[in-house]
Amino acid sequence: VHGRAKHIYSIWRKMKRKNIDFSEVYDVRAVRIMVPDVKSCYAALGIIHGLWHHIPNEFDDYIATPKENGYRSLHTAVVGPEGKVLEVQIRTGDMHEEAELGVCAHWLYKGTDTKKSSDSYEEKIAWLRQVL
């Protein structure tokens, strides 16, 4: 489980893009739950919704219906501890690799033929992160 607070600039961009008020930004606080397989994604979602009240219309199943770029994850927003809204993302390790590094990360994750090509790939990813 990993947590993060949304950066203020990202909040502002989302408000402008969706034409919404701050009170409608439900992912200011977020946690990501990593599980071993797809079945566990849905099991974790059931547990989360059993613990806290989920916010209607704030659920996206990107596993059943991936985004155009191949992104897969479950997203939900709940009224969590202390009555604060919390976004919860649930995904597998493979889904996380693809979300963080792109579909090419799958090749690195599963292994490459030589140590040299692996090092080269990692250097390119490091360079790309600096550019972005």
Automatic annotation (TrEMBL):
InterPro entries: NT_sf, RelA_SpoT
One of the GO biological process terms: response to starvation
GO molecular function, one term: GTP diphosphokinase activity
GO cellular component: plasma membrane
Gene3D superfamilies in UniProt: Beta Polymerase, domain 2 (3.30.460.10)
Domain (RelA/SpoT) ranges: 3-113
Record-stated family: Belongs to the RelA/SpoT family.
Protein name per its UniProtKB record: GTP diphosphokinase
Organism: Oceanospirillum linum
